[in-house]
Fold this protein.
Amino acid sequence: MKQRGIGDIVITCSVAGHAAIQWEPVYSGSKWAMTCFVQTMRRQLMGNGIRVSQVSPGPVVSALLADWPQERLQKAKDNGALIDPEEVADAVIYMLTRKRNVTIRDMIVLPTNFDI
């Protein structure tokens, strides 16, 4: 990317990298570290034509919820407590399709009834 003078790096992190999750101190700590890493990498690559961004979703339907019954997953989605992975992918596509002079540094993607 540096040789070409153009590129995009999008890191998927977590909302826990922006707000401490009291019942997940190790997870939150690792995500705060990731956020710092991404910000540092962005500064190192600035001026090389490389945009560095981070998308931080809240609760997403994933393998971590594989033990949830389907009806519980659907109820959580219907109640605005979970989002689908495709919604995070849509956010990434939005970030990548901005004009080259625009970097969306961080994007937090949350279910409607979830806050940090």
